[in-house]
Amino acid sequence: MTREEVLAALEDVIRLLGTWDITTIRASLGMYLCCKAIHETTDVRVLMTGEISDELFGYKYTDFAPSAEAFQAESKKRIDELHMYDVLRADRCISVNSLEARVPFGDLDFVRYVMQIDPELKRNRYGMGKYLLRHAFEKDGILPDEILWRQKAAFSDAVGHSLVDDLKAYAETRYPDGEFRDRCRKFDYCPPFTKESLLYRELFEKYYPGQAEMIAGFWMPNPEWEGCKVDDPSARVLSNYGKSGI
Questions:
Q1: Which of 122, 105, 106 is nearest to 69 (CA)?
Q2: Whether 204 contacts 210, CB under 8 Å
Q3: Which of 22, 51, 154, 212 is most buried, with most CB under 10 Å away?
């Protein structure tokens, strides 16, 4: 997918999502264009998708959880809010392209089972994120080792260019610094804090005026944890990005 395709799809993606959240919009652009290509160029109509594995087994930032109890509480919070973030993204991007999704990690019995596992076992103490999930596939050889044990990478950095950098650069061209600050002051609820977030919020308000509170807040790593006090939701700003531990 090209930079031009990403920017051309931006307004439509925000309209179909009904969100102003930074990370949801970034991830949705790639997913939307990918699903669009599948619909237009193949006969595939049902997709397997991996949503909810992060919420159950840990994100990059949950490597910084200070305790097993904190890891478990964060996992529950993310699952409770799925409809506003990852599941919103997957549902809209897939269905708008006339495709159906199968979400094996969202099976209710599986979710209950994983949430009952001692959270200490799910913390990154193995030198590899989501170790328990990877280990479950290890013996059967279902996945090649280079896939099974590769590091997690941001999807937006794996499309032939940095989708995130392109979006940030585009937003920079839209607002002079003084105008940016004035426009941000218009919003009392979850005010934008970057030019990129302002761009998304203004496009959201175009289609959903006054409805910003239907989203709980910006999806961000837990700011109360050491190592997670960042100003961008991307995993690549974390010190452990590209590594297996902290």
A1: 122
A2: no
A3: 22
